[in-house]
Design goal:
The complex is a heterodimer of chains A (about 375) and B (about 375).
Chain A lengths: L1 H19 L2 H21 L7 E7 L4 H11 L4 E6 L6 H6 L5 E5 L3 H7 L3 E8 L3 H25 L7 E8 L6 H32 L1 H6 L5 H30 L8 H25 L3 H17 L12 H6 L4 H15 L3 H30 L1
Parallel strand pairs in A: 1-2, 1-3
Antiparallel strand pairs in A: 3-4
Helix pairs in contact in A: 1-9, 2-7, 2-9, 3-6, 7-9, 7-10, 7-11, 7-13, 9-10, 9-14, 10-11, 10-13, 10-14, 13-14
Chain B lengths: L2 H22 L1 H21 L7 E7 L4 H12 L3 E6 L2 H9 L5 E5 L3 H6 L3 E8 L3 H22 L11 E8 L7 H31 L1 H6 L5 H30 L8 H26 L2 H18 L12 H7 L3 H15 L3 H25 L6
Parallel strand pairs in B: 1-2, 1-3
Antiparallel strand pairs in B: 3-4
Helix pairs in contact in B: 1-9, 2-7, 2-9, 3-6, 7-9, 7-10, 7-11, 7-13, 9-10, 10-11, 10-13, 10-14, 13-14
The chains are: A alpha/beta (about 375), B alpha/beta (about 375).
């Protein structure tokens, strides 16, 4: 038992040396998570900071000017051009100079004063329909405010019921608050799976794996010697991103580190197990890399990182039950923002433990098979 | 001096060797054919930014006929599924356990205040997924407006204000997210085949020393590079055709620009990614480093910083500056425009020029970096 422990420790030391002794490979392990969490923390947002728009004001009235000044004062809408003819709209939209073109007809103020619906036409660039929808939503909010002011200013009754919107766990609904904690799982998955798959494949390609098999190491020990260093590197990567989330992006951490790291530990065991699984079917580094990539791709796309899991079709949702990232994102977001405890996270912890147990035992079995 | 025929013969021989190597390795075929197919399926059926029904926990502290009618309006809405609870703490527990997405809170003085004109209801959403939370807030306006219109009859058009917005979405009238995802898909597939696969293959030759063996033959550097480009170019075009067919027959995305221009734009982008793959592998000469670098330099930016999923206009100025250096940015804009808007010269030619310059620059750099030299 004791000698087994020593053997595993020796393997762990060897594995760390293999990965960390080359300064270039040290850099490639730690620089990408840092760069990516910074870049993606800023980039991965569905909120719009700036909506370039153009206006075709055919009314030239006090009312239309009031609406437009409200728009310009919003801080989000930036007027690119004042159009004179409806024919100019397409040129602005086509060249992407304006995301929205707002057209105010010449009866705008007259209709408003008479209490008839005053129409404002909005043309949006739908090349990215999600962005267009968001921009139109912002415009709708500005118009709502204008309407409320107009009503109170002209003695019309306001709406009978006012809705007060509040948000739990993310008061300003900043999408970065959900995105950056999600990156902890996503970037670590890429790192851990690739690193593990490549480390075994490199040994197989260079023939040192067969040398390892003729040593007194037992299959279980080889598996542990490969898995533990990669889990440790993964935890170091997660910690780096966690620090960036807290100290760079100032996203308040409201959960417990014990719960978070228990979840991350289970998640990394599953990720490393899958990496070993990939390396067992890959004969070369190229194959290991590409197969790992073919697994990571659907894992990342179908994890809830970019689009919600709930909207995916049933058959995909059930196929996704083996996706470790699905559980990892749930754990990181809920612990980070909602202070979720062990009891709430059982539905995430249990499948991760199962994936880890199955893949790691398979890896040990596979190493034994190659021995026989 | 029958030089040219010798050059062509050597290129041909090397290309045949490379093509055989590609076809014999199951992982290359997987990336060339299985990867595009998988992406088409995932993008086509897995990704959607629309929200289906949301579950709302209703806390009715008023328990009057007025408040019951308001909760009823939420029940009638196709967007909401209502769970009645007794306290806001209970609602919060439901949200924490993921059994509800948000809460509707009607305070105990709702009915009284409503009869005095000026009632409030609270809609609480779980902000963990901010995008979903926003959509839910927008949905909540519906039932409240319906209730107001029906219940408060006198106010007439309570749901519409004095100013009414009439909106039209150009290029994507049916608001179908496939319309912008399919052009992006082509870019992703080209990035993986062009950069990722090529980088691995050339780095392996450096690692194993087979390139050095090649250098003692009469093969020139340019010939070697062309023979490396051709098979992967073919593989990339296979992926392109698969995506093109899927876009047309599976997702029915209209192609409003011209097909030759679309092919030209895609080909140019493929040359850029091939150039990156070749250059990176020539510079680092290690499979592990090359694969990680290419992933970092091409794939992730193509996914996150190209305007494919996340709009460039949402990003801070500094990050927007970074995106100008990313080839995928130009490719996504080109393909989205060609697919959805048509042959808009003012968008297409400058972006095509940038991509061409990048392709030429990268291939020249690769040519300079590859030396017939033993280290």
């Amino acid at each position: 038992m004791r000698s087994s422990l020593y053997r595993i420790l020796a393997l762990i030391q060897k594995e760390f040396l293999a990965v960390l002794k080359d300064p270039r490979s040290r850099t490639i392990i730690f620089l990408p998570p840092i760069l990516q969490s910074l870049l993606f923390g800023y980039a991965a947002s569905f909120d719009l900071n700036s909506v370039p728009y153009a206006v075709l004001d055919q009314d030239h009235s006090a009312a239309s000017a009031a609406l437009l000044s409200r728009l310009d004062g919003s801080g989000v809408f930036h007027r690119q051009a004042d159009l004179a003819r409806a024919g100019d709209i397409s040129a602005l939209i086509n060249s992407s100079r304006a995301l929205l073109v707002i057209q105010i007809g010449q009866d705008f103020e007259r209709h408003l004063v008479m209490g008839e619906p005053a129409l404002v036409q909005v043309v949006a660039d739908g090349r990215n329909s999600n962005t267009a929808g968001t921009a139109m939503g912002y415009f709708g909010n500005v118009v709502d405010e204008f309407n409320a002011d107009w009503r109170s200013g002209h003695g019309q009754a306001g709406p009978p019921v006012q809705i007060v919107m509040r948000s739990w766990y993310n008061p300003n609904l900043d999408s970065r608050w959900g995105m950056v904690p999600s990156l902890i799982g996503t970037l670590t998955l890429v790192g851990a799976m690739m690193l593990t798959a490549m480390s075994v494949a490199r040994e197989r390609e260079q023939g040192t794996f067969d040398q390892l098999l003729v040593t007194p190491f037992r299959p279980f020990e080889i598996m542990a010697g490969k898995a533990i260093p990669n889990v440790a590197i993964g935890l170091a990567q997660s910690t780096t991103i966690l620090l960036i989330a807290q100290f760079w992006f100032h996203i308040p951490f409201s959960g417990s580190f014990v719960v978070l790291y228990s979840g991350l530990g289970l998640f990394l065991m599953a990720a490393v197990g899958l990496g070993l699984l990939v390396s067992s079917i890959a004969a070369t580094m190229q194959q290991a890399m590409l197969y790992a990539f073919l697994l990571i791709m659907p894992f990342a796309l179908l994890s809830g990182l970019v689009t919600p899991v709930k909207t995916m079709p049933e058959f995909l949702q059930s196929a996704l039950l083996i996706n470790p990232l699905l559980y990892a994102l749930d754990i990181t977001k809920r612990v980070y923002l909602e202070n979720a405890g062990f009891a709430q996270l059982v539905p995430d912890f249990a499948p991760l433990a199962a994936i880890g147990a199955v893949t790691l035992s398979f890896a040990a079995w596979f190493f034994r098979k190659r021995l026989a | 001096m029958n030089d040219w025929s010798a050059v062509l013969r050597r290129i041909r021989a090397l290309t045949v060797k490379e093509t055989r190597q590609v076809l014999r390795d199951p992982s290359s075929v997987a990336i060339g054919v299985a990867f595009p197919l998988m992406m088409i399926l995932l993008f086509g059926y897995g990704l959607s930014l629309d929200v289906t029904r949301v579950t709302i926990a209703a806390v009715d502290l008023d328990a009057s006929s007025d408040s019951a009618a308001l909760v009823g309006a939420f029940r009638l809405s196709p967007y909401f599924q209502v769970i009645a609870v007794h306290s806001i703490a209970e609602a919060r527990t439901l949200v924490l356990d993921r059994r509800a997405d948000g809460a509707l809170l009607i305070s105990s003085d709702f009915s009284r205040r409503w009869h005095h004109g000026g009632a409030q209801v609270q809609v609480l959403v779980n902000g963990t997924d901010a995008n979903q939370a926003r959509i839910m807030q927008a949905y909540a306006q519906g039932p409240v407006a319906n209730w107001s219109a029906e219940y408060a009859g006198s106010v007439g058009n309570a749901s519409t204000g004095p100013v009414v917005v009439v909106d039209r979405m150009w290029f994507n009238e049916s608001n179908d997210s496939h319309y912008f995802l399919v052009p992006g898909l082509i870019v992703l597939v080209m990035t993986i085949i062009g950069a990722f696969l090529t980088a691995m293959v050339v780095a392996r030759e450096w690692e194993r020393g087979t390139l050095e063996a090649l250098f003692v033959t009469p093969v020139r550097v340019g010939e070697f590079l062309i023979s490396k480009l051709l098979p992967y170019f073919g593989l990339g075009m296979t992926g392109f055709v698969l995506c093109l067919l899927a876009g047309k027959f599976l997702f029915h995305v209209p192609l409003r620009g011209s097909l030759p221009l679309l092919c030209l734009a895609s080909t140019t982008y493929l040359l850029v990614t091939l150039g990156i793959g070749l250059l990176v592998s020539t510079l680092v000469k290690s499979q592990f480093l090359a694969s990680q670098l290419v992933l970092l330099l091409t794939y992730l930016p193509a996914m996150m910083l190209s305007g494919l999923v996340f709009d460039l206009r949402s990003m801070p100025a500094f990050i927007q500056g970074v995106t100008y250096a990313i080839p995928a940015r130009y490719a996504v804009a080109l393909l989205q425009t060609l697919y959805l808007a048509g042959d808009v010269g003012s968008t297409i030619w400058p972006k095509l020029a940038v991509l061409t310059a990048m392709a030429v620059g990268l291939l020249i750099l690769t040519r300079l970096a590859t030396r017939k030299r033993l280290s």
